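G., the chain you wanted modeled:
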Amino acid sequence: MRIDSQYSFADSDYQFGVLAADTFQSESALLVFVSWFRAATTLVIFLFMIALPQLYLKISSRNAALVAPLNLCLVFGGLSGVFSLFTAAYGQFR
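Predicted structure as tokens:
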């Protein structure tokens, strides 16, 4: 079974847009949320890379490529369970 990644990305963009439009009344409020969310995820990834540098050396490119489909399953599973802005934002910036 082949999953078309372009459809999945477009679908998550649409879901994020719907949730963002329902949650925020102005573009500036949405920009503040996206800025803080992006900064927090970048900080978590940075701290993870500092704390576990050997993990990145042991993971091969082929194994790292397996993370993207699993991440999409996590996003769509999360959206089907909890249709919230944070789940949609995670899917948008995966």
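Helices lie at 5-23, 27-51, 53-58, 61-65, 67-81, 85-92.

Shout if anything looks off.
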